[in-house]
Amino acid sequence: MQALLESILDEVRPLLGQGHVASYIPALSGVDPHQLGIAMLGTDGALYQAGDAETPFSIQSISKVFSLVQAISHAGESLWERLGHEPSGQAFNSMVQLEFEKGRPRNPFINAGALVIADINQSRYAAPILSMRDLVRRLTDNVQIISDRAVADSEYQYRARNAAMAYLMQSFGNFHNDVDEVLKSYFHHCALSASCVDLVRGFSFLANSGRCLHSGESILTPRQAQQVNAIMATSGLYDEAGNFAYRVGLPGKSGVGGGIVAVVPGRYSICVWSPALNASGNSLVGMAVLEKLSERIGWSVFSPL
Ligand code: GLN
């Protein structure tokens, strides 16, 4: 497995000049695009890593999975009164459907949906920024995890589009807390820094029927873990979710920091990171790495496991 990961990274290295790092905020536009790392954690505890697997990066929308898990844990099924679990087929920051669908976001992994989730969590936790950070520390087994202040502040400064979505949802009665306060929480969650090795630990519960691998703690029921994996498979890569299912065939979640997490249910959590993005805002080289991995090993939830 170790040799396989290294050879796949070598094969995709020529692609490293392609794509563009996220440029919507200055704090992300300066990241070196030539970085590339991968980690894989088996449900048997075996950890494999190659390249820049221990370099922390901005997890961005990968945090939307942690926020969803937090909301499921206290709101349960009632969550779905506020948003759906349908793929959107639109860019992560699109607002076109929000107007037509009366302020009810399609799913928790587009920005509009993640903002509703952040609103739900804001009502539940006295310190939403810290409670999320602590959840991620617990799941990754890394007490050093912090939110990058410069990234969060920069997101807040350039918040117009996310703020517009929140106010539109408020106008439909689907946003209950102060918009600015919820945006601050959301941006701090996106600005959490973690490495591939941290994130494979952080996502081990989704490969392990809801149970965190290192602590044994039950994070979700097996049924809930299966449902989160289903939403990742259908919406985790926005308007490229179909392409990801076709090329990789695993539940996945990407972020504009260039990370992609994928889950092989019952077997592995995987995280690949390379900062340059394709037109859909997903790591260009990360997609290629996961495609090769799925091709070589034959892992796909669409084929016999
Ligand atoms: N912080 C980013 C935003 O709200 C997250 C987007 C992403 O990673 N796709 O625009």
Automatic annotation (TrEMBL):
**Signal listed as a keyword:** no
Q: Which residues form the signal peptide?
A: none
The entry's keywords: Acetylation, Hydrolase
A single Pfam family it belongs to is: Glutaminase
Assembly description:
Homotetramer.
Residues that bind substrate: S61, N111, E155, N162, Y186, Y238, V256
Q: Which family does it belong to?
A: Belongs to the glutaminase family.
Which reaction(s) does its UniProt entry say it catalyses?
L-glutamine + H2O = L-glutamate + NH4(+)
What name goes with this protein?
Glutaminase
This chain is encoded by the gene named glsA2
List GO molecular-function terms, semicolon-separated: glutaminase activity
Group of enzyme by EC: hydrolase
Matching entries from HAMAP family are given as:
Glutaminase (MF_00313)
